[in-house]
Fold this protein.
Amino acid sequence: MSNIAPLKTEAEQALIAQGSGIAPDRKAAFERFLESGLPHRRVEAYHYTDLRALLKNAPPPAKAGGKVSVTSPLADIDADIITIVDGHYEASLSSTPPKGVTVKMVTTLADDGSAQKSVLSSDPVIALNAAFSDSALDIAIDAKTELVKPLIIRLVTTAAHASYPRVRITVGDHAKAFIVESHEGGVAGSLIDSVLEVRMGDHVVFDHLRLNVVDHAATVLTSFGGAMGKESLCRSHNFIVGGALSRHQIFFRFEGEQSKAEISSASLLNKKQHADSTLVVDHAVPECQSREFFAHVLDDESTGVFQGKIIVRPGAQQTDGKMMSRAIVLEDGATMNNKPELEIFADDVACGHGATVGALDEDLLFYLRARGLPKTEAEALMLQAFVGEALESIEHDGIRDVLEALAEQWLKARSA
Amino acid sequence: MVAVKETVEQVKQLDVDQYKYGFSTELEVEKAPKGLSEDIVRFISMKKGEPSWMLDWRLDAFRRWKTMDEPQWARVHYPKIDFNDSYYYAAPKKNAAPKTLDDVDPAILETYKKLGIPLREQELLAGVQTSKIAVDAVFDSVSVVTTFKEELKKAGVIFCSISEAIKDHPDLVKKYLGSVVPVTDNYYATLNCAVFTDGSFVYIPEGTRCPMELSTYFRINEKNTGQFERTLIIAEKGSYVSYLEGCTAPQRDENQLHAAVVELVALDDAEIKYSTVQNWYPGDADGKGGIYNFVTKRGDCRGANSKISWTQVETGSAITWKYPSCILRGDNSRGEFYSIAVSNGYQQVDSGTKMIHLGKNTSSRIISKGISAGHSQNTYRGQVSAHRKATNARNFTNCDSLLIGETCGAHTVPYLESKNASAVFEHEATTSKISEDQLFYCRQRGLSAEEATALIVNGFVKDVLQQLPMEFAVEAQKLISISLEGSVG
């Protein structure tokens, strides 16, 4: 029974058709994808996000960027902007890069040798991006450059087609930057499969935010690969309110000693939304510290997925890794799937993870209601505090305020 | 840190060959021809004098098994198993259904004596021990003796080998066999359905508290033999039973396969406590030989207010692939899983549990302690899920891992799936080595590094040891010491 090759789904057939006559430098990546096809529930990493079943169709890639009509929730933040519309860099909507930052387009990208050094795994969604992205945006931040303003990369989807943006960032030694990856727009049937890869030097302070506010009918698959040198700090945040189907995967590797990573995420989901946060933190060297905190609020018939893995390689002694996942299930129709993993090959480590799934605390709710708050308001207050924990490590006050406002708006819509 | 370095050195030198149950017994045996085919399945069924419905059940399982693939998801690595290179039936020749202990081959009795398993009822009665244990001894493919049968019969308890149960209690077997672990559950369970040779059967009637602990002792003796036993325990309404299982095998260079299936059924208000001390031969210091232990154990809390508790101490086997689970179907039912898994040498352990919450107000508790030393890999893999109607399901999971030495690995892979808003699941896991502070504290009070380590390891596993019946707790504690010899005093 299992020896029979599975039938190709409609989406797979569409992708195969789109890949015929693919450019030679993209061929290897496309074949990597073909080998596995769309991942399904028997593929461990996609056990809870079965793309064979969930991805109904794969629209053709957009030839050029459409007209942007959405306003970014971060529009009021004083920042440098880079805009990518439907996978294509839009110079007219981008600001001049600040001093110490170089932005350029690269069209030959697949398998130029960088793939071997890449922290990005041989994941089928990443392979698909490598096959279909027609260019990559390379951003280089020079050593000792400290960016005063955040750099916001807007990835806007305007119509029901696919886009495969790829951004590669190198951060020089002693540099400091805050990069926002903001996924906006989207319509029913649109698909974005983006890859952001960051190489950090030594003594770097790097902040990253992935914001997903796309339309509730769109599909967003995003991958973030981070590799960091010694004595650096990286904070990566993820905020999800949008998308019918969304998966954010983080592959993070410590390559230098005494570095620290803080990864946090907040997902607010309702209706039939499905959001997956997948994380692999690879402690390849000794004396690094990682902290992960993931919060999910699930209403209606939504599904939340958290898969986190801390790997401690042989010899990575003195590793300190803590991972926490919390989920609040508000309705019986909602589902939370949690899989926090530890994979440890060194003995002198302190690693731990915790995971909780449950409803709002009845006692707290009673306390608030006894003080005259209506049920929905009391719930909103508690949920706001719950989500707030995942947002508090965001360094930029303005951006944090925007996210808190978005959470508040979500809660208001719920009570309405 | 000096103390731990010493410990690590000693663990490295540790001879895994200290396995003290590694002897084998010279016996005349009757074997089925080597290999696996429908004819072998028929042969086994014929040897056991089974009714035709049983043979049909086996053949159906065998045909299904041939279409299945070996599971690959566990964190264990081993060369591909040639299922045709093994004997599926081996029985001591003199085993023409012994009526009393005197009919049993003295060499077998000697074996059990060496293993410290009391088969003679009077020994226990004469002793100072206040509790009695009824033992079903399974030697290679067949059950050789079951003790205390008469006394149990008075209480209405049926405790016999499964082959006898198929003949004497076909209605019970038909009703419950395969009802917890379906024939096609997984690759090894399906294989077991086709070729199982013996095992234990327990039936506790309504409202009965089993008057003594029941125990089965499994021994693989023959070369190149796989052991496939099947255990079925049924606890009727309001009954209680505590069941112990022990296992050992001789030291051999080749890998031997052990694929058992255990099914427990607890009806309304019933309680089953199932304890295992698994000490199959783990292989030598270079990882050669040892038992491949692929076991499916599952309990079904079918009735309201029922309870199933699994306690396991895993020290043996080259490879362990084992997930004793509870299906919490009845309202207010409760599942428990307590585990200590110790791995050393080149052992690979992938073990854990599943708690499937289906009924209302169900609760479960998982306490898992993994200790890895040498070059071993020790994985906890557990699933907790609440279905849509499992209102007020509760789970608490705690898995701690302790690493001794730089070349071993400890992994935790929990799956928590909730589809009900009122379900509350909590999971915590930690991985650490023995803390310097604890060691320093103990040493300051005059304990040697070894004694201190022993004390700390004992403290680490105490939560689980406490759950074991007295007789087993002592054995388990000794086993842990032997498994970690060199690091534990």
Notes: Chain A has two domains: 10-256, 361-416.
